[in-house]
Hints:
The structure holds 2 protein chains of 2 kinds. Chain A is an alpha+beta fold. Helices cover 28% and strands 23% of the residues of chain A. Chain A is built from 19 helices and 28 strands. In chain A, the strands form 7 sheets. A 7-stranded mixed β-sheet of chain A has the order 3-5-1-12-9-10-11, with helices on both faces. Chain A has a 5-stranded mixed β-sheet with strand order 7-15-14-13-8, sandwiched between helices. A 4-stranded mixed β-sheet of chain A has the order 18-26-27-28, with helices on both faces. Chain A is globular and about 85 Å long. By secondary structure, chain B is an alpha+beta fold. Chain B has 2 domains: 3-78, Beta-grasp domain (Ubiquitin-like (UB roll)), CATH 3.10.20.30; 86-157, [2Fe-2S]-binding domain (DNA polymerase, domain 1), CATH 1.10.150. Chain B has helices at 24-31, 86-93, 103-116, 122-128, 140-157, and strands at 3-9, 12-18, 50-53, 56-59, 72-74. In chain B, strands 2-1-5-3-4 form a 5-stranded mixed β-sheet, with helices on one face. Chain B is globular, with a radius of gyration of 16 Å. At the A-B interface, helix 1 and helix 17 of A face helix 2, helix 3, helix 4 and helix 5 of B.
Amino acid sequence: MSTNYIGKSVKRVEDKRFVTGKGNYTDDIVLPGMTHGMFVRSPYAHAKIKGIDTAAAQQMPGVVAIFTGADLAEVNGVPCGWQVNFKNGDTMKEPKHPLLAHGKVLHVGDPVAFVIAETREQAKDAADAVEVDYEELPAVTNPAAGVRAGAPLVHDEAPGNIAFDWELGNPKAEVDAALAAAAHVTTLEFVNQRMAPNAIEPRSYIGAYDTTSDKYTLYTSTQNPHLIRLLMCAFVLGIPEHKVRVVGPDVGGGFGSKIFHYTEEALITWCAHKISRPVKWTSTRSEAFMLDAHGRDHVTKAQMGFDANGKITALKVHTYANMGAFLSTFAPAVPTYLHGTLLQGLYTTPKINVDVTAVFTHTNAVDAYRGAGRPEATYLLERLIDLSALEMGVDPVELRLKNLIPPFDGVAQPGYQTQVALQYDSGNYQGVIEKGLAMLGYADFRKAQKEAAESGKLLGVGFSTYIEACGIAPSAVVGSLGARAGLYEVGQVRVQPTGKVSVFTGAHSHGQGHETTFAQVVADKLGIPMEDVDIVHGDSDTVAFGMGTYGSRSLAVGGSAIIKSIDKIVEKGKKIAAHKLEAAPGDVDFANGKFTVKGTDKSLSFGDIALTAYVPHVYPADLEPGLDFSSFYDPTNFTYPFGCHIAVVEVEEETGKVALKRFIAVDDVGNVINPMIVDGQIHGGVAQGIGQALFEGVEYDENGQMTNASYMDYCMPRADDLPMFETGSQVTPCPHNPLGVKGAGEAGCIGSTPAVVNAVIDALWSGGHRVRDILMPLTPERVWTAMQ
Amino acid sequence: MGNKIHVKVNGKDHQHEVEPRLLLVHYLRDTLRLTGTHVGCDTSGCGTCTVHIDGQAVKSCTVLAVQADGANITTIEGMANGQLHPLQEGFHQMHGLQCGYCTPGMIMTAADLLARNPDPSEAEIRHALEGNICRCTGYHNIVKSVQYAAEKINKEVAP
């Protein structure tokens, strides 16, 4: 096969519509007769609803309907998609998450009423006129505080506010014994703070109902239209799937926050039927800050033990994971199967025990946010190992190298079995560290750092390695771990009679560039120009099925499904070609867009075969016409990208301000289809990880009010906060999928956060400030205070 | 309701009666159906709604439609003139966009910068874009896109 496209930085197909203002995001869509909705939301984190008076609002101009929780008493709540039971076998506590609050509100922003009017302004005016009588109750926001005796209870059915507890790895007694016998133990108690995902397109939904066909349509800014349809139809509204079309048009970023099935999606679909008119609701940024599922929020104690030679002997972790007031779609999986299972990292640690307590609080739901669990695991490991190096007085790179898992390709050598369930597919961990050190110029840096310190400048370098489990995921494995869905993907390849190709994928692109990357793969595999390939995604009526895009899965799982269909097309094409060329199908080769009889110059082009398949005049007797295949691909393992990230910072001693001088990211994401797009994914992820380290974090006050729910108060990384990034790559192919790809969407966000924090701590030590840890984000105030 | 405004948008004249509270961004999006200008926040913090009013970059969510009466407005839809504007081309060539949502605002802000400073340094570009948030790109390729456009414009201007 020639590779005209694979491995090349092909410019993106989708760009033209976006740079000319012709993108089609949900809020851009106007349907005939469309109404507009606005929510009345709780101003309290915890309160009894004593009464709702909608009488005045009903009389306002343009009001079409007003719904409250009482109208939806018989409607199901939105479900959780993952069930993690208690250690003792008790079922996970899963209180109903109603579409509108009824009787009580459990977090600020909990929806109390939904007002529908002819215009957005009229809906807003009427929503302001709805009177709600609350009795405020005490709230709890911190997960460690939530489990204390006497803490305000979020749900009566979850005593102690515990949703579930969970443990993985070696028996606790063995790990305790190893820690007791260790020559050195490093202990770190820290908070991995709550993050607001901040996709720049706010969530937006349009529900519509057609009375003649009894058919619903939901336009939604989602990462997975079919999953939303499945959850909404089967669990919430009880309407049959074939009567529901879910469309995810252009979507302005997700970062995890648009995976989940939100109450508003189901409510708006339900309302469209009730009023027999389309209803649109678009989140404000204030609502987005309060209500788009947050990420992280772990309160953790971790201990790492070493022998006298600096080899890690044990790791013990306990985490309180904040779930918020309700269990969002994937929430239970994040601190468990996406966090606990990654605590082997790149190290040979022989004993690991991780214990997680998932806690309800009077806050917004917490779920997967770029990296989801893996950044928390990486932060834990890489902060611990760096701190251990400082405490033991050894070089942080040497300590990592000493404990590294040796290289294995997963083919000749077996995969690496961790102590925490996963089996890594292939890896060369030393390679990415060495490459990173070379890009940095480590020896020179240490010299420069010493000189800087002598002249009163605090220069620091921070290292981080990471591994992630991507390509989510083998259905049977995740099923045994509590997933309530399969996590395969669907890829349909329809060859048109003229040889042009339409590809239908269940993956959803919201910035990842699938229309380009997938077309590169298909064009090369079929030996045709990219212009002849069209990638279709995001519409449940045109795409057979799909599980969507998250967990860096699109190419590894969705791409593999497309490859399966291409294989079927080639196989059928060979039969057609063999018949026309009067040869045996086994004697026909397909390469570079040509079907050729082996050892001859007799050949037919891909276009000839496509036309013959649809005009089957000279055609094998036992073969169906047409050239159109759909395939499901269910992976056999996760994929395991890994890398080494290095940050160089300068800390201003007088103010505590951190300036990021360099950022080096060496990532091994397996085979690369489009290096430009992979680099772009790394850049964006790195920026988000730096955001967590230095700038961002959701703050709740003691009453459960989010005190920084706007861009005036929540510090986003901006253009002048960041340097140019230096990216390097290494390729260790994935041994178990046909493209050898591992996934690149989350890598940047996983490796970068601890690298930056480690760099700041290193800078402080270079100036004689023996600071062990600083709570993220490392604001100037916190860094300055730590130095005093 | 009813305040009559007369504006020129992308070279076309428009007259409408608008509510006094109507924001310019909603006038552009809802009344004129120019949906390339986006709304990303409610505090003028994200810059996705940036347009040009009389040649200057302005966040159209901070302007009432009535305040724009008599103005000459350019939106992202008015940037390509038969062929892509050098900034539009730059964002494509340098992979300066991913989800595309912040892109129109970025391009409009960068166009204002290049009009004032045709050869900006990296620091000047970053400073100029500091009122526009992108969550996808980490700004690296956005800076390169603006540099690409500056170079192209300067080459075209040079004899």
